[in-house]
Amino acid sequence: MRDAAPQRARASCAWSPGPPGVDVVSFQGFIGAIAVGELTANGGKPFFNVRHVLGSGFIVDPVRGVGVTNHHVLPEAFWPSQVAFYTLGPDGSWRAHILHPEGYARMPAHDVVRFRVITPSSGTPLRTYPFHTGELKLSVPVSALGLPRDLMADPSGPISVTIRAQTGHVVSGYHDDIEVDVPFIQGMSGSPVVAGDRIVGIAYRNRQYALEQRILESEEVSEGDGVTRREVHRYEEVLRFGVFYKAKIIKDWLQLP
Q1: Residues 184-204: pLDDT tens digits?
Q2: How many Å apart are CA 108 and CA 215, to the nearest integer?
């Protein structure tokens, strides 16, 4: 199977704020978009026609072309002919990496899948960053780096892309996952979470907590021969946290060095 032809794109970088020392060049061959579409012929060359983007993903083993994302981003139903993995090149174009038919696997009991791309013979090489597998202290700043739902297919023009970094602070940690004090926006599922130049995990969901309960109204309720007044409670304030799996569980599952 040959690689799909590269598609031109407008690449922009939006930070909110971005992690120190990271610029758009750092994304090349590392972070990508999981896109659904069809592989067609365009002037005798294979061409991947994007319909929409499912979420983000990133490379963990550039030699074998292995990447990871969330299972809810890339379920088995899409594998492999309907999906491509887009990475950014140095000229601002996005290359559609076709997925290897035998590269799909799901991590047991976790919302993580492995995929494998067919690496193009030319263009930006795939890359990754070292994993941090130790514990993260509370209040440590971390950033989810990904592509929210800004990658759109436009038959009459280039693909428009916004690369975004969401930065928050560690607020709690559990056995397999960690919470940060900002919720992840739609499309950031499957993004790498980094601290400095180390991968510390993969974003996969938001979690919310009701912080305060107040009596907003009361109502009369018939009970037997009498009438009583029952208070109706509503949650007044809700906290929403982004949640990511720890890098260690991915590294151990894939047996990465």
Answers
A1: 988 889 999 999 889 999 999
A2: 43
